[in-house]
Design a protein that fits this description.
Elements: E1 2-8, H1 29-36, E2 39-44, E3 50-56
Antiparallel strand pairs: 1-3, 2-3
Length: about 60
Amino acid sequence: MIRIEVTDARGERVPEVRHPGDEEEAGRGLQLVEALAARWGVTPGPAPRKTTWAELPVPR
């Protein structure tokens, strides 16, 4: 398993999977993560930060 983490300073906003319309240019990042990752989530802190992480299987 490989783990990827991204930390940002917007701790008040928790990422969520969106389903944007065909004409929208943003909002598909977590759709890709959800499709490719074995699991993903968000770890809070320290304030005001949060870390969004994803674990992907490693091919043998």
